Amino acid sequence: MPDLPLSSLPREANMTATSAPKTDSRPGQGPRIRMCRGCCCGTRRKHPDVDHDGIAEILAHESGSDAELVSTDCLWQCGLSNVVVVNPSAAARRAGARPVWIQKVNTLERARAIAEWVRQGGPGTAEPPDDLRDATPRSAVHRSPLSGW
């Protein structure tokens, strides 16, 4: 299957690092990147000056061959958009690592920092770079008001 631009894929499509839609639903062994594309995240309505497709392309193509990019519906953190959640690899999860929430993924540089961290192993394997020092473990995230609706 040829590579397709992410904008041509359905929002809910699962994508590997090659941007091809996944053909099975088995979880990958590497980190999984959940990219919110709900009510606010990924929309020009809320963030008209953000290169949303560029961010998605970086996360899809620069996160390593073991990583999986998944576009999700609203994660209920609209005040922090654009939100990305990095789930640990299967091995790191078995060792106790937990998902990490990253807020305000609104620049290509921030997307590259995420991709580099995921290439190094992500949560439970590698420390997040300084650019991601505001990354938050799930236990510290609380439902925020829906500022986008």
Short précis:
It contains three helices and six strands. It is of the alpha+beta class. Strands 1-3-2-4-5-6 form a six-stranded mixed beta sheet, with helices on one face.
Taken in chain order, the helices and strands follow as: EEHEEHEHE
Main sheet attributes: strand count, strand direction, barrel closure: 6 strands, mixed
By DSSP, the count of extended strands is 6
Chain-averaged pLDDT: 77
Protein name: (2Fe-2S) ferredoxin domain-containing protein
Organism: Streptomyces humidus
Describe the protein.
This protein is α+β, with helices and mostly antiparallel strands and 149 residues long. It has one domain. It contains three helices and six strands. Strands 1-3-2-4-5-6 form a six-stranded mixed sheet, with helices on one face. Helix 1 (52-61) links the parallel strand 2 (32-36) and strand 3 (68-72). It is globular and about 40 Å long. 37% of the residues are buried. The model is unreliable at 1-26 and 139-149 (pLDDT under 50). This is (2Fe-2S) ferredoxin domain-containing protein. Residues 1-30, 119-149 are annotated as: Disordered. It comes from Streptomyces humidus.
